[in-house]
Amino acid sequence: MNILGIETSCDETAAAVVKDGREVLSNAVYTQIPLHQPYGGVVPEIASRAHVEKISEVVRTAMDGFGVDAVAVTYGPGLSPALTVGLNAAKGLAQALDVPLFAINHIEAHLHTPFLYDAGETPHNPPPDEAVPALGLAISGGHTNWFDIAGPGRYETIGQTLDDAAGEAFDKAAKLLGLGYPGGPKVDRVAKEYCAAHGFGNLVPFPKGRPREGVSALAGLSAELCVSFSGLKTALLRYVQQHPEATGDDLPRVVASYQEAIVQSVADRSRRALKRRAYKAFILGGGVSLNSRLRVVLGDVAKSAGVPLLMAKPKYCGDNGAMIAGLAYTRRNVQGDAAMGMDVAPSLEAGA
Ligand code: KG4
Ligand code: ZN
Asked: Cis (ω within 30 of 0) for the bond into 77?
């Protein structure tokens, strides 16, 4: 079964055709990053206009030469005007092609990315139903959530950030340090170079993202499985104010220290979460899962817990249509008239 997946929740206009939930036949991604760069972040109005301009071309490119049996689209979470463009396009296409429409949750789709493989390739990970129960970590510009995935489609949030998402923490620090937007890839590169030359022994001891107990109780979750990055951001700001060289000669060390604080806090919560029950796998998804240091450290965490770390190929870590099409095949939950009448859900949570 070939499914066309459409994704427009943020700053990527993307479409892909995926066979039977895993084999990616085509994958077209138009990134708007250069349009948002002058503003240091995503501007919703600019994003939705660019989606309108590009959606037809991106869908045409993805469908070139492939018949589709269904259309899947992200309906949330994300920026409302951006989601609307994709949802409307998908409704129109499904009607014109006379095929079913599936409405898909973006966060859940990120957790499907490790199961994607390219046409003609041998899959590097087991199928989704053999990987459960799993611990899932969706870590992106909008989310940092740990899920207990009891079975296909059964997501329970067991931990999360209480303020900024990890990607936001990377992006805000990069802005403060003058590294530009988006910050994650830039921080990653600078930190990698610094640590390759100097190791990890001389880093600034930034706080490791532990929330105060009372605060996490509000979210109804155990503090042990939650992170908070606002204190880290304040610590960086204070450090920069007190050490002018932090944005000069000492910049690489400061950047590496900041990244390490995020990575170690995520690693610590993941280690604790993996002890909750006998998981078969640790599933990682989202733009921040591209971070080279995070991939290594979480690999060690999973190894110590005796479970495989299932990660996506780098090209499927950021937003894409393949993850939407892939998850639609597995879930097929919201479809038909229900999906046709669906509105966007900007604040949608996983497992909803
Ligand atoms: O999943 P994604 O493409 O969009 C959202 O759903 O948010 O994630 C984008 C986020 C941005 O915050 C970006 O800075 C971050 O992923 N990111 C990284 C890296 N590459 C992208 N963060 C850390 N290290 C990276 N290499
Ligand atoms: Zn995303």
From this structure: yes
Calpha distance 313→17 (Å, rounded): 17
pLDDT of amino acid 217: 63
Whether residues 276 and 146 fall in one domain: yes
121-174 pLDDT per residue, tens: 999 999 999 999 999 999 999 999 999 999 988 899 999 999 999 999 999 999
* d(CA 288, ligand 1 centre) in Å: 4
> Dihedrals φ, ψ of 134, to 5°?
-130, 155
Residue 109 sits in the same domain as residue 256 = no
Do residues 285 and 148 both lie within one domain? yes
pLDDT surpasses 80 at 105: yes
From atom 10 of ligand 1, which residue's Cα is the shortest distance away?
141
Total structural domains in the chain? 2
Is 276 found in the same domain as 196? yes
Q: Ligand 1 in contact with 77 (CB < 6 A)?
A: no
Q: Are residues 109 and 91 in the same domain?
A: yes
CA 346 to centroid of ligand 1, rounded, Å: 19
300-304 long-range contacts (CB < 8 A, ≥24 apart) are: 300/267, 301/267, 301/270, 301/271, 301/274, 302/274, 304/271
**Ligand 1, atom nearest to 174 Cα:** 14
Tokens representing residue 314 in the block:
């780098």
pLDDT digits over 258-313, tens only?
999 999 999 999 999 999 999 999 999 999 999 999 999 999 999 999 999 999 99
The verdict on 103 and 8 lying in the same domain is: yes
Q: Does 171 contact ligand 1 (Cβ within 6 A)? A: yes
- In this structure, what CATH number is given to the domain that contains residue 305? 3.30.420.40
182 lines ligand 1 (CB under 6 A): yes
140 and 266, same structural domain? Answer: yes
11 CB under 6 A from ligand 1?
no
Residues 211 and 92 in one domain: no
| pTM, 2 dp | 0.94
Q: For residue 37, which amino acid is it? A: Q
